[in-house]
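Worked Example 4.2. Consider the chain below.
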Amino acid sequence: MNDKVNKLIEAFKNKLDIFDKLMNLGTTTTEIIEFEKFIGQKLPLEYIDLLQKYNGEKHILCCMAGFGFSSIEEVKINWKLFDNQEHRKPEKIFQETKITATLFSDKRIPFAHDGSGNYLCIDFLPNTAGKIGQIIYLPLGEDEPISVIADSFKDFITFLINAIENERLKLIDEREDWDEQDWQMAELHFFSTWNDDWTDIADEYNNKK
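Applying the procedure from the previous section yields the following structure tokens:
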């Protein structure tokens, strides 16, 4: 497994001792190959490694920077929704030269979601100044700008590791208020401490360029 992915998993486990138990079992190589054929894209190695360790979340942990990490089946469902929509120009784009001016595309892979119609996507449809495989915040449920937040899935993992270690991605853990057999009732998830529309993260990304 990729060293960066290992470091991410360790960062989560250092904050949450039962992290493994709350994630789905990983995918097989055969499932990854079928998944890539289904979406018509070659996926980043770090994303593949993470899926082979955990095929999404069993408990809603919101470990993808406050968004839920989607299983392959969830990605397929949301990707098909993108694929079946007519072209529509977004009202707001934070970095216009990096992001192609469309809301829906089968070249955007929604690997995480917030349950309200907003996604984090691997973007295989960048604009002229963007990068293939960049990570974008795609708000379909809010009046917010589409934003690039990382150049690649590898860079996004680095961002996650730093956010966990610095508690910008903070664990809410109320298990001490419940008996162990009732832990499923406890608040137990990661939440982001930045703006809901991600523009401060996009600003930080811009400032690194």
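Helices lie at 3-15, 29-39, 45-53, 72-83, 153-165, 199-208. The mean pLDDT is 92. Compare this with Example 4.1 before moving on.
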